[in-house]
Write a structure and sequence with these properties.
The chain is an all-alpha fold. Helix content is about 65%, strand content about 0%.
C-alpha cells in the first residue's frame, strides 16, 4: 500500500516536472497552479492506461487526459447513456432534404383506394360493404380471453420490482453481474408460458 502511494506521488512529481519544461520561458519560475496539480492527480487515479512518453507533445498529453477522464466517468455509470444526434431525414418538412413531400399523401390515397375497392367487391358479392367472418371467432369465449389477457398484462408488472432489485443490489443481483440473466430467464419463461 505504501509502495503504491509512493509511486503515485512520484508520478505526480514527474508530470509536474514535464509540465514545467513545456511552459514558456516567462512562466518557468512560477509554481504550477492547484487546478493543474488536481488535474494531474485525477488523471493518475482514473485507472491503468498505456503510459505516455515523458517527451510526448502537449496535444497528446491533453488528449490522453481527456480520454482517461471519460473512461473514469463511464466506469461510474451502471447503465450506458444514449446521446441524441440529429440525422438527416427525407420525411422532415423542416429539412433541406425534404424530397418526399408527396409520398405521405400518395400512401393515404393508395390505402383509401384499396379499402374502397374491397368494400365495393364485398357489396357486389354479399350485399354488405363489410365482411365480418371473424365476428364469431372474436365473440367465442370472450370472458375467458379477457381474463387471460388481464393476467398476462399483470404478470409483465413483475419486471418493475425485479429492476428495482437490480438497481439496489450490491451483490450478484446487480444488473451487470447476474441481474440481466435473471431478467432474461424471467422473460423466456413468461414467453414460453403464454405462447404455449
Amino acid at each position: 500500500m505504501a509502495t503504491s502511494a509512493l509511486d503515485h506521488a512520484n508520478n505526480v512529481q514527474q508530470r509536474l516536472r514535464n509540465y514545467a519544461e513545456l511552459r514558456p520561458d516567462d512562466t518557468r519560475g512560477a509554481p504550477p497552479s492547484k487546478a493543474l496539480q488536481q488535474t494531474l492527480e485525477d488523471d493518475l487515479q482514473s485507472g491503468p492506461t498505456t503510459p505516455l512518453a515523458s517527451d510526448a507533445p502537449p496535444s497528446l498529453q491533453a488528449t490522453s487526459s481527456v480520454r482517461q477522464k471519460l473512461r473514469a466517468e463511464q466506469k461510474k455509470r451502471s447503465f450506458p447513456s444514449i446521446e441524441f444526434q440529429a440525422r438527416v431525414s427525407h420525411f422532415d418538412p423542416a429539412s433541406e432534404y425534404r424530397d418526399f413531400r408527396g409520398f405521405f399523401v400518395a400512401f393515404w390515397i393508395g390505402l383509401a383506394i384499396m379499402c374502397i375497392t374491397t368494400m365495393l367487391r364485398n357489396l357486389k358479392e354479399t350485399g354488405y360493404p363489410f365482411q365480418l367472418r371473424q365476428k364469431e371467432t372474436f365473440l367465442e369465449n370472450i370472458w375467458e380471453m379477457a381474463l387471460s389477457d388481464a393476467i398476462m398484462s399483470a404478470t409483465t408488472l413483475v419486471s418493475l420490482p425485479l429492476h428495482k432489485l437490480y438497481a439496489n443490489s450490491k451483490g450478484w443481483l446487480r444488473w451487470k453481474a447476474g441481474g440481466k440473466w435473471v431478467q432474461t430467464v424471467f422473460q423466456a419463461a413468461w414467453l414460453f408460458y403464454w405462447v404455449e
